[in-house]
Amino acid sequence: MTATYEAQRAALAEVVAIPVTPFAEDGSVDRDTHRALLRRLLDGGVKTLTPNGNTGEFYALTPEERQLVTELTLEEAGVRASVLVGVGHDVPTAVACARHARAHGAQMVMIHQPVHPYVSDAGWVDYHRAVAEAVPELGVVPYLRNPLLPGARLAELADHCPNVVGVKYAVPDAARFAAFARDAGLERFVWVAGLAEPYAPSYFSAGATGFTSGLVNVAPSVSLHMIEALRSGDYQAAMKVWEQIRRFEELRAANSSANNVTVVKEALASLGLCRRDVRAPSKPLPEDERAEVAAIAAGWSL
């Protein structure tokens, strides 16, 4: 029987939470706090978790820490949520991480945008194909940030690898997304708005059915309210949420997203949920900017 990956596809048409990775005072991953933050997401109604995403500081974690974060997430999620594990770096590393995720019960892997400065269209297909073919049982989700990649290349990848079931599209151009999705096959994939709540309404209008979120770490109900509004076609209600989260997301996006993770961890710290520590090349907010983040977090209905 040919696999249909229906459960994986359904899990992508959700608020796809990207959990933070909290650190202890000695700089190590704070396991107990990490578990507590995951339980808070699950209790808040989140159904899809992405360990080792960029909000989880994927590129600042050691290989052993990435495995730890994967295992902790799968243990806490159990049957309550689907887990989409971020993998990347060189092909052997990405394949090994995908196989580790499979061995510990993950349903899907998200392949991070290749960081190599020289990426050809055909090489992009080869890179993703190598990972997808190594774990045919898992749903595979490319993380797309390249505005130059044509939709036909994604279709080519899926021709080789039917387990490529969704796309995290993170190019900040709604018109480009609409064209790319139709060139690749609008109904063929689950389209996830990869730039979170600020872009979700415009991307949903063009065919997305899920969106990623770092803000959800702070206020799960806010993110879930937005997707409920979008599912029902109530764009006025969705934009009310957009207005509510606008400043928070502007702070995260400033200076080429320099404080993307920092702002989320600062908000969590203001609520007493974890330390504000981030790893280089990120840096904690200066004292004079912390109050604004705390005020925003306190103002949300948590």
Write the SSE topology.
Layout: H1 6-12, E1 15-17, H2 31-43, E2 48-49, H3 63-77, E3 82-87, H4 91-103, E4 108-111, H5 121-134, E5 139-144, H6 151-160, E6 166-169, H7 174-184, E7 190-193, H8 200-205, E8 210-213, H9 220-231, H10 235-257, H11 260-270, H12 287-299
Parallel strand pairs: 1-2, 1-8, 2-3, 3-4, 4-5, 5-6, 6-7, 7-8
Characteristics:
12 helices; alpha/beta; 11% strand; eight-stranded parallel beta barrel; 302 residues
What does this molecule look like?
- The chain is built from twelve helices and eight strands.
- The protein has helices at residues 6-12, 31-43, 63-77, 91-103, 121-134, 151-160, 174-184, 200-205, 220-231, 235-257, 260-270, 287-299; strands spanning 15-17, 48-49, 82-87, 108-111, 139-144, 166-169, 190-193, 210-213.
- The protein has an eight-stranded parallel beta barrel, surrounded by five helices.
- The radius of gyration is 18 Å and the shape is globular.
- The termini are far apart.
- The model has no long low-confidence stretch (mean pLDDT 96).
